[in-house]
Amino acid sequence: MSRGKPNKRYTPEFKKLVVETMQQEKLSYRETARQFEISDHHRLQDWERIYLIEGPEGFAIERRGRESKGRPPKQLPKQVEEDLLAEVQRLRAENDYLKNLQALVLEEERRQHKKRW
């Protein structure tokens, strides 16, 4: 049995030819792999599935690497962005107020403590 090249990349046209030949001549995956010198007959199962689900156009889609898991949109709508910026400003102001209040309370406690001694 001849072996294909490792990590060989096949063109969409070649994949289409292989799948269509396999279907027309009613060849098995192993027979087709042997005929077209493809090292792994399981690859043909994937090609056939893509061909049946998406058609020949499905071979043009790059499928290597991990699939994206729904990243958030890169640009927020203008109104949402403005609302978020306003909320950040409000929270920063609130934080500053509470820090100042805490400092005043601590200062008052220190004064009370000094008066007792």
What does this structure look like?
With about 120 residues, the chain is an all-alpha fold. The protein has two domains: about 50 residues; about 40 residues. It contains four helices and no strands. The longest helix is centred in the C-terminal third of the chain and has 39 residues. About 10% of the residues are buried.
| Quaternary structure classification | single chain
Query: Residue share in helices?
Result: 55-70%
Number of folding domains?
2
> How many individual β-strands?
0
Element string (H = helix, E = strand): HHHH
How far is the N terminus from the C terminus?
A: 98 Å
Which radius of gyration do the C-alpha atoms yield? 33 Å
pLDDT under 50 segments (min length 5)?
none
The count of helical stretches stands at: 4
Mean pLDDT: 86
Strand residue content: under 5%
Task: Describe the largest sheet.
Answer: none
Keywords:
2 domains, mainly alpha, 63% helix, 117 residues, 4 helices
Give the arrangement of secondary structure elements:
Blueprint: H1 12-24, H2 29-36, H3 41-54, H4 78-116
Short structural summary:
With 117 residues, the chain is an all-alpha fold.
